[in-house]
Amino acid sequence: MRIDIITVSPELIKSPFEFSIIKRAIDKNLVEVHFHDLRTYALNEYGKIDDYQFGGGAGMVLMIEPIDKCISKLTSERTYDEIIYMTPDAPTLNQQTANTLSLQENIIILCGHYKGVDQRVRDLFITKEISIGDYVLSGGELGAAVLCDTIIRLIPGVLGDETSALTDSFQDNLLSPPVYTRPSEYKGLKVPDILLSGNFPKIEEWRNEKAFEHTKKIRPDLLED
C-alpha cells in the first residue's frame, strides 16, 4: 500500500510514523507513506496557499490552485483508489471504513487547515471525507495520523499475530472483553478461573458473553446496528 499525505505542516505529522508498529510496517516495505508540503505548490515566492473567504467571515481558506497542482501531479504518476479529505463535517471514522481502506493499493489523504478548503476541491477531487470525532482540531494532520494507524495495522504481516486485529473492539460491533496477564492474583483480585482452565471453547464463550455485557453497558448504540 502507498499513502500520500498532503499537508500544510508535514513536520507535525511525521513523528507518529517513526515509531512502533507503523515504523516496522514501513521498514518491512508493507506500506509506503509520503508527505507532501502544500507550500511547495504555493502561488508565489511567499508561500501563499490560502486566502480570505468570499462573503466575509473569520478564518482563512486553503485555495484550490495549490491543491489542484499537488493532486494532479500525484494522479499523473499512478492511479489512486481514494482521495480522502480529513474534516470534522464528515462521516465519522469507524472500523468498517478502516477495514475497507486497508484493502486499497494507493490513497491520498488531504489534511484540512484553517477554515478548511475551497469547496471546489471537495467537488472536483475528493472521493471520501472522514472525521475522527465531533470536535475541531487545528488541522487535519492528527486525524490523518489516526486514520493511517487504523489502516496500516490491518495490513497482513504488520501485526505479529494477524488474528489480533480480528478480535479488536468494533470488528463485529462489540467492544473487546476484559483481558488479563500474570500474576494470576494481585492485591486480592484474581483472574477468572475460566481463563486458567485450558477449555478454549468455554473461554471463547466467556469472552463473547463479556464482550456483549461490556458493549451493552458502555456503547448500547452498537447493538442497535
Write a concise keyword list for the protein shown above.
225 residues; alpha/beta; Alpha/beta knot; Trp Operon Repressor, Chain A; 2 domains; 5-stranded parallel β-sheet; two-stranded antiparallel sheet; 8 helices; 34% helix; elongated
Would you mind describing this structure in some detail?
Helices cover 34% and strands 16% of the residues. It has 225 residues and is α/β, with parallel strands linked by helices. The chain has two domains: 2-152, Alpha/beta knot, CATH 3.40.1280.10; 169-224, tRNA(m1g37)methyltransferase, domain 2 (Trp Operon Repressor, Chain A), CATH 1.10.1270. The strands form three sheets. It has a five-stranded parallel beta sheet with strand order 2-1-6-5-7, with helices on both faces. Strands 3-4 form a two-stranded antiparallel sheet. Strand 8 (185-186) and strand 9 form a beta hairpin. It is elongated. The mean pLDDT is 94.
Q: How does the overall form come out from the CA principal axes? A: elongated
The succession of helices and strands, N to C, reads: EHHEEEHEHEHEHEEHH
Strand content: 15-25%
Based on DSSP secondary structure assignment, what is the total number of beta strands? Answer: 9
> How far apart lie the N and C ends?
30 Å
SSE-based structural type? alpha/beta
Task: Could you tell me the CATH topology label of the largest domain.
Answer: Alpha/beta knot
**Biggest beta-sheet profile:** 5 strands, parallel
Multimeric state of these chains? single chain
Number of domains: 2
Radius of gyration: 21 Å
CATH superfamily membership of the largest domain: SPOUT methyltransferase, trefoil knot domain
Q: What's the arrangement of strands in the largest beta sheet?
A: 2-1-6-5-7
- Our count of helices gives 8
Mean pLDDT: 94
Unreliable stretches:
none
Q: What is the highest CATH level, the class of the largest domain?
A: Alpha Beta
| Helicity level | 25-40%
The CATH level-2 architecture of the largest domain is identified as 3-Layer(aba) Sandwich
